Amino acid sequence: MITNDPTHSGQKKEQENLLPWQRAQPILEVLSSLSYNTGELDGYLYEIACSVGNLLQLDWTVVTLSCEGQGKVMASSLDLGEGQHIFSVHGTLMNRVVQTGRTLCVEDASQHPEYGCPPAGYVSYLGVPLRTYHGEVLGTICSFCEQPRLFTGEEVRTVELFAERAATAIDNYNMYRKQQQFNQFLEAEVSKRTEELRVAQAQLIEREKLAAIGEFASTIVHEIRNPVTTILMGLNYFKRVCVSDEARERVSLALEETDRLQNLLKEILLYAKPQVLRLEKWELNGLLAEMFGLLAQMPQARLRRLHFIPASEDIYIKGDKDKLKQVLINLVTNACEAIESGETVTCRVERQAEGVSFTVHNGGNPIPAEIFPKLTQPFCSTKSGGTGLGLAIVRRIVEAHGGCLSIESDKKKGTQVTVTILPQSV
Predict the structure, then answer these.
(1) Which of 45, 150, 255, 267 has a CA between 20 and 30 Å from the CA of residue 239?
(2) What is the pLDDT of residues 32-49, one digit of tens each?
(3) Which of 98, 94, 154, 79 is closest to 126 using CA atoms?
């Protein structure tokens, strides 16, 4: 701390009698001892603030950053407590240094209010700008004394040396942070592109696999259909000529199994063949309302209630009408089979930010957790006697339209299947 006692005056006189290189030696020693590690800025600036205060015997020294009329204390030779210390630079001595980009020495600020106000309890001020090598002023090193003090040119040059180090460290830190942010951006982009490539590759493999399965399935299905048709004709004949009730019952059971086999063959073909769309523009509310009237006549819908909630406006989309009808048939059939008599299946149409959606909802027991992830995979079914191809076919049709299929199921809300058609199809 600077005082007016004779001991201090004697020390200062002794300092002035030293040769220039003798006075510079402790400064050089301190500068050489400063160590900046990348990313560890606070500790380095604290060393600078304390070193300036000790070398020049100052009461308080701070390193500040300035941005858009606000100052932030980055380091202080005195303990300011926890948290960030941000202040308005308007009307302060620091503001003048930042605006002019020049060092400011004030022996007694109370005698020169035109330079700005020092903190309470301090009188003299030395402010040095933190200037980068390309001329940008980032902030200041501000030093204060409680008593009036006239700063020498040598003292000013000393603080300017430390200000140069501080500005370089802050500039390097900012570049380091920008590089980090850029690296994180690159990593995110690489991760994103890698995931997109993985998805595209999986889709390509899936298409190739489906094409191979489709070709194989078509051949097998046609080979099976012919003898099944012959068997069906024979069973129908036996049903007509059978006399005993027991024989008729056996033939009826065989006919039911034959029908189930034919349905399976039909669904295998529907799943395996390429989804070639016949796109046309039509109004979604009207089509689904018409379909709901027909679906109410299905055996699966008997003793169930079907409730349709259209959107509040006409919604036109481009799509394959027959294939989207198949989607609705499959979803409503599944919903009806999942509930008891007297319960309701609801279909709602909505316009959303991501496009247009229609949702089929039913109560009943939730889908078992162990089956849920496999629901849209071929031959996965929760129903006894089900083919397990219904939702797989729905998913293929929806994705062929550029849309997406989502399924939610829990004990409280029941099961809800949502088909979303993206804007390019609307």
Answers:
(1) 267
(2) 666 666 567 888 899 899
(3) 94
Q: What is the pLDDT of residue 6?
A: 38
Give the span between the Cα atoms of 111 and 286, in whole angstroms: 86
- Report how far residue 42's alpha carbon sits from residue 63's, in angstroms, rounded to the nearest whole number: 10
The pLDDT of residue 13 is above 60: no
Q: Residue 419's pLDDT is what?
A: 93
Nearest Cα to Cα of residue 426 among 282, 290, 325: 282
**CB count in 10 Å sphere of residue 410:** 11
Q: Quote the CA–CA distance of 144 and 80 in Å, as a whole number.
A: 15
Distances in whole angstroms, Cα of residue 294 to Cα of each of 116, 266, 287, 288, 297: 85, 21, 11, 10, 6
pLDDT recorded at residue 370:
82
How many residues are present in the chain?
426
Angle between helices 390-400 and 321-337 (to 10 degrees): 150
Rg of the Cα trace of the chain?
A: 41
Q: Which residues pair with 76 in a beta bridge?
A: 62
